[in-house]
Write a sequence for this structure.
């Protein structure tokens, strides 16, 4: 067995799409996107007798405190075979010396459990201070019929899904760069009202510019009398659709019920298995006083089930990691004191 960089897109994509579950966060085009915004990327493949048996898209992050490698929802491999993972870790350690990297952060596509945590703890990993990707995701099983999906919705959600069109709310699907630019503006307005932090506008625009032409991302927008009411960016890859970003006009007639229903139906038309609403607040914080309660309540109204991922895992290489970790702890405590809640 050996680990080396994969240079052919088709080989990478064929392997990733053959695995279940899979994720757009490890696909070839996600690497293209990250490279386009200035990050150094490494596409590592694990080969056994010339056959690809595992992959890991690594992104290099640089900061004043520490540099680190990050694998979003990676690596993708057979976890039952420890040799495969250990071989990959050996390669990444060598690469970290060449790239002056202080630690490795993995965000595996694994369910939260003691057994899965042990895979990392036994190899010196530390559970990250906070999450990067969502930990508690809300999923809908798309194998069910539309009538079954409607029946499983909260009563008020089902009513709004059915009645928004009667009130003149229409939904369109777009690949337009002009529309994604408008979405980025609206997202910033929404963030200002709801007190959350966004990436730069260029982050969303470049992401869409790369993924939309490959049919891996669409923009859904609801409008009434020609005026936009709400917008949502949805990614499509492998067996799932992912609701990534949403924004709405203050005081609008629609906050996205029929919009989400159209996205769900599009995922069904593509033959996908799941519609992933992305993150919801943890059960212990699911109460009206928490700032994430509103969007979590909205998502859960569509029916479905929660899936909890393993917390991101950090492997220290140098003492700079501990400075980085201390800063993360301080930031987390600061948010608790100023905003009155824990992130997790």
């Amino acid at each position: 067995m050996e680990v080396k960089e994969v240079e052919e897109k088709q080989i990478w994509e064929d392997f990733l799409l053959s695995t279940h579950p899979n994720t757009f966060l490890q696909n070839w085009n996600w690497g293209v996107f990250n490279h386009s915004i200035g990050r150094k990327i490494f596409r590592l493949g694990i080969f056994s007798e010339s056959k690809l048996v595992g992959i890991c898209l690594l992104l290099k992050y640089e900061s004043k405190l520490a540099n680190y490698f990050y694998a979003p929802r990676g690596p993708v491999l057979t976890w039952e075979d420890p040799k495969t993972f250990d071989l990959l870790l050996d390669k990444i350690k060598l690469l970290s010396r060449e790239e002056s990297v202080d630690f490795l952060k993995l965000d595996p596509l694994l369910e939260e459990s003691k057994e899965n945590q042990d895979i990392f703890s036994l190899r010196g990993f530390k559970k990250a201070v906070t999450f990067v990707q969502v930990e508690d995701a809300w999923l809908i099983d798309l194998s069910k019929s539309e009538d079954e999906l409607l029946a499983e919705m909260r009563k008020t959600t089902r009513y709004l899904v059915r009645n928004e069109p009667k009130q003149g709310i229409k939904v369109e699907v777009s690949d337009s760069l002009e529309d994604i630019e408008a979405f980025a503006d609206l997202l910033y307005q929404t963030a200002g009202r709801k007190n959350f932090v966004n990436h730069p506008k260029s982050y969303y625009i470049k992401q869409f510019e790369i993924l939309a032409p490959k049919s891996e991302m669409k923009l859904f927008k609801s409008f009434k009398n020609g005026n936009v009411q709400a917008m949502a960016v949805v990614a499509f890859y492998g067996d799932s659709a992912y609701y990534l970003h949403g924004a709405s006009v203050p005081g609008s007639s629609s906050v996205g019920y029929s919009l989400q229903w159209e996205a769900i139906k599009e995922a069904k038309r593509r033959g996908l298995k799941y519609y992933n609403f992305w993150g919801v607040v943890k059960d212990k914080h699911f109460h009206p006083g928490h700032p994430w309660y509103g969007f979590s309540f909205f998502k859960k109204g569509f029916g479905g089930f929660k899936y909890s991922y393993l917390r991101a895992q950090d492997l220290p290489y140098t003492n700079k990691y501990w400075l980085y970790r201390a800063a993360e702890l301080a930031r987390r405590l600061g948010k608790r004191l100023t905003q009155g809640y824990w992130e997790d």
